[in-house]
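can u do me a favor
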């Protein structure tokens, strides 16, 4: 074991993936070295997710299995970061006395100082709110490939956090409690950071936030020269020369403005792809969820997007079995799926989360019933995804290569579809663009053949 080595396991969303990258970088700056083997590490960090009950259980079961490692090696330090840390705090130590450090979601930048405070097996906890996001979060160094995060670990495609937190308080959601209120970074800092990345060879940027559409809104901590909205930021970022692909995630439908929709027409490097979580197809349930839009509002925006960019790929999140969801409500979600024909979706059984209002609502459904609805939804979504993917058969698309190992190549289209290519030349390295003809469509990916010309 190297006494300076650390291992990070990341659970959950892209925000956590980015936070792990930042912690890895901060630790590397103070002499730590990242390892991919937890058994070799002197420090193990679990960057945790608590958005659904299952995600949280995974964290506790992994912590349980680390107990043995700690017994074998009492010098080992175990740190819990992320949303479970923020939510459970002291309770983690009460349950798991082998944990040395619990740090909240807003303290990742200070990980090195906090670690040095947790010496002599005294546990340090830091959960307080602090609205500081560093003005500049450099993307240098670190050890790609270790976080298992796909292209974003590579030097050609990066996530850039533009805002954190959430003010929406959807009744099922723990994020406003674990991530705190919305804070937007200064636009000039974001643009400078992306310029530096692009100068270093990055060609794809994903702007990241819990609700990017409300970037810069007046009820946030921000010091942009107002008014400056997310559409303004997109336009300024899109101007950066050499930035081939620009994406953003995640959007709240209520904040998807007409100006933002028009960006898909006006900004040539803004990829025709949007993740637009709808959660339910029933207005009654949307109201109980505090989503602040109706299905009619939502569909109007979807239609505008499709008319402006007919090639746009729309994906969504769905919760089935929200408290009080009747069979008729659920059928409205199924109907919505038929209307929008999402390219893909993430769907979940509703689960109670601490502090959320939905946890106290009447009308909880049984696990069996939620399971049945989930299966029905996912089965139909899979069929639609396949039908959608077949629409690409015979077309030639440009993919951004992510991996090429011995001629087995994988890349993504502008719509974020994964394409596998066999027998690719080895000089098509990650980060390059390749024109491919789509020759096979599966549910979750496409197969392509290289075409000699340009798409
Ligand atoms: N139960 C089930 N799914 C949830 N999500 C958020 N909170 C819950 C919950 N309590 C889902 C939503 C959200 C996605 C990230 O996770 O669909 O968009
Ligand atoms: Fe959670 Fe709703 Fe905020 Fe999304 S918008 S993070 S679902 S509270």
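np, heres the sequence
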């Amino acid at each position: 074991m190297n006494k300076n080595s650390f291992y990070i396991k990341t659970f959950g969303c892209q925000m956590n993936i980015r936070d792990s990258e930042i912690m890895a970088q901060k630790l590397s700056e103070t002499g730590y070295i990242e390892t991919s083997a937890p058994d070799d590490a002197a420090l193990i960090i679990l960057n945790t997710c608590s958005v659904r009950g299952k995600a949280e259980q995974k964290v506790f079961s992994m912590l349980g299995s680390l107990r043995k490692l700690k017994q074998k090696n009492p010098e080992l330090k175990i740190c819990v970061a992320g949303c479970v840390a923020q939510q459970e705090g002291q309770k983690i130590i009460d349950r798991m006395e082998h944990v040395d450090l619990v740090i909240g979601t807003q303290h990742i930048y200070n990980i090195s100082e906090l670690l040095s405070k947790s010496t002599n097996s005294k546990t340090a906890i830091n959960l307080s709110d602090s609205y500081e996001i560093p003005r500049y979060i450099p993307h240098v160094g670190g050890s790609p490939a270790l976080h298992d995060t796909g292209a974003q670990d590579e030097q050609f495609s990066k996530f850039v956090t533009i805002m954190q937190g959430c003010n929406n308080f959807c009744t099922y959601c723990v994020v406003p409690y674990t991530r705190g209120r919305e804070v937007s970074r200064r636009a000039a800092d974001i643009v400078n950071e992306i310029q530096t990345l692009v100068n270093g060879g990055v060609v794809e940027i994903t702007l990241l936030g819990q609700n990017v559409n409300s970037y810069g809104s007046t009820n946030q901590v921000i010091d942009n020269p107002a008014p400056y909205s997310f559409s303004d930021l997109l336009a300024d970022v899109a101007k950066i020369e050499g930035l081939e692909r620009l994406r953003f995630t995640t959007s709240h439908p209520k904040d998807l403005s007409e100006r933002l929709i028009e960006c898909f027409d006006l900004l040539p490097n803004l990829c025709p792809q949007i993740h637009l979580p709808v959660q339910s197809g029933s207005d009654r349930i949307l109201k109980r969820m505090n989503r602040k839009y109706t299905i009619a509002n939502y569909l109007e925006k979807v239609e505008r997007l499709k008319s402006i960019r007919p090639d746009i790929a729309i994906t969504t999140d769905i919760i089935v079995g929200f408290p009080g969801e009747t069979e008729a409500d659920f059928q409205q979600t199924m109907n919505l799926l038929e209307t929008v024909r999402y390219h893909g979706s993430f769907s979940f059984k509703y689960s109670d989360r601490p502090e959320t209002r939905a946890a106290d609502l009447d009308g909880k459904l049984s696990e069996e019933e939620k399971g049945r609805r989930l299966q029905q939804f996912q089965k139909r979504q899979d069929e639609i995804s396949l039908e959608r993917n077949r629409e690409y058969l015979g077309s030639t698309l440009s993919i951004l290569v992510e991996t090429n190992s011995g001629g087995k190549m994988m890349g993504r289209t502008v719509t974020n579809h994964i394409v596998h290519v066999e027998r690719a030349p080895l000089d098509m390295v990650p980060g390059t663009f390749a024109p491919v003809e789509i020759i096979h469509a599966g549910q979750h990916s496409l197969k392509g053949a290289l075409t000699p010309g340009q798409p």
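Residues 51-52, 172-173, 277, 279, 317, 319, 348, 350-351, 353 surround 5'-deoxyadenosine (ligand 1) (CB under 6 Å). hope that helps!!
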